[in-house]
Every structure is written in C-alpha cells, then in structure tokens.
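Hi there, hope your week has been kind to you so far. Do you reckon you could talk me through the fold, stretch by stretch? I've dropped the whole record in just underneath, so have a look:
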Amino acid sequence: MTELAASDLETIYPKPSPRVIAKARPEIDAHAKKFIGMSPFCVLATSGSDGSVDASPRGGNPGFVNVADPNRLLMPDRSGNNRIDSFRNIVEGSGFVQLIFFVPGVDETLRVGALRQGADARKAVVIGDAGRTRRFSEHQPGDPRSDQARRA
C-alpha cells in the first residue's frame, strides 16, 4: 500500500458542487437559527493540546442551545460524568469546537464550527431552567478559521 498525501485526495474525489460550497456561512443565518431552535440534540467535538479528539453528546428540550446573536451560541453546561474532557480541551487545547445539530425526522444536519470565546467563569451566563441552574459556555461561529455548513 502506498502513502496517501493530502494532495492526492483532489485526484480521488470530485470537487464539491457549488450548492455545497454555498452552504458555508460566516455567521448563523435565519435558517441555521431556526434549525438550532428545533434541535434537541447535538454533538460537541473538541481537540486537546495533545491532538486527542473528544465528541460529546449534548441534549435537552428543542432550543436548548441559544443563538444569542449571529456570532454567538450559548450552550448549557448540564451535569454529566464530570470528566470535563470537552471543557478541558476548549481551555487547554486549540479552542476550536465543532457542533453538529440533529432534528428528529429531518434528513438534514447543521454543522457549526467555532473558536472558543469566554471559557472563563467570569463570562459564564447563569439562567434558570425549570428550577435548575445552568452554566453556559460561549462559542463564536464566524471566526475566520472556522466554518458553518449544512449537510443534506
């Protein structure tokens, strides 16, 4: 078996269609905001300083991730297994995150790439959720090094 270089991929795979390229947006648009509002589940992927990758399921009632503005998402920090892999990667790793949102019954997903903004406790927003307190971490879609795309 021969070694595969990144440049070889363009000879193996066809170029993406203009429709696929047009899906990438620098900000959360109206369609993306609506999709996030309908989503009860997403997967948060982060990378650590050692190059490790973590993909963590996140969920709640539809709209549990709040679109604060076209460049900012607020995600609840709910109790879990307390391994804090994702937060550790965000704080100590690259700070890049990828979220992929799902809506049951919809054959489309929404991918949002972001660079961490405000992982320290001073920027956490605390709100009530049916008697439970949530801490939110802020993520900034639209960073020039990140992407947002919808996949059919």
